[in-house]
Amino acid sequence: MRISLFLGRFEYGERGILDITHKRLFTFSTLRRSMRAAGFDIRRVEGVIVPIPFVLGQSALSKMLLVVNRWLTKIWPSLFGFQILMVASPRPTLAAILEAASRAANQKSTELQQRAQRQSA
After folding, report:
1. How confident is the model at residue 105 (pLDDT cuts 50, 70, 90)?
2. In this structure, are 119 and 66 located in the same domain?
3. Burial class (CB in 10 A: 0-12, 13-18, 19+), 62
């Protein structure tokens, strides 16, 4: 288990510290995979920096560490990021596509009827 965690694999199983009853932890890849499987298109993913000033206060040291952490997080977000920020949008479901098509067809039909009424008047 520790080797898997060291390699960035947070795979849940039937028992152990990663059994399915525990809170969900994600790596960048497992979060991407879960979001895609749930029907989302991923727009942007980035690492969030550690909130060092909340821990050490507003000091010169915390400001310097924040700059270093920001730089390291940009280089290697999966190692130095505190959290994952993901922007995603839901893929349209079949029901949503059919509803949109039905609305468009009804609107077009109404427009054609109105045009026909104006031409006959």
Report:
1. very high
2. no
3. middle
